[in-house]
Amino acid sequence: MEHNKILGVVLAGGKSSRFGADKSEAILGNKNLINHILDKITFKFDEILIVANHKISFDENEKINLISDYHKDLGPLGGIYSAMKWIKDNNKSYEWIISLPTDTPFFETEILDEFYEKTKQKEKKLFFMKSNNKRHNIFGLWSLDLFKNLEKDLLENNERKVETWANKIGVETININFEGRDPFFNINTIEDLEKAKKYIKI
To answer: pTM surpassing 0.90?
Structure first.
């Protein structure tokens, strides 16, 4: 799998209802959460797409494009669909997208290399990361070959759950090993943000 055939996609269209505000712009250390992930992945991709349904502040870069969901309120699957449709509408040559959330500031890019290497041994169209027996449904590698199936299930069959749809399609989980601080620690609440601030000081 060639890296230049993969589009990096940051999903920032969630409502952040548990957080009480747009968590992608919550400040951790000296920058907001979305910049934590962008700073780490920008050099990994030729282009990055942010899918968000509201104005969002981030450090702009010529590699980064910002779009809204083509259809609102479809959840993360809607964000994946929007990224795939953007590729097709703009005649891009990407064959895969890698999806990442905005709320995991401790994610390390070395994980992507391990992930890609392990997917090369498989023949699936969809891969999710897993660690400590927990599947991370937003950390996924999605083939553009899934576009038509996803479009039909979203717009005609009213499918919304990532886990349900992925299981139906046939997802392969790739186990990621780590030591020390959990790179998949995600910030859903203010309490989580306070924990993250303590982790930074450790």
So the answer is: yes
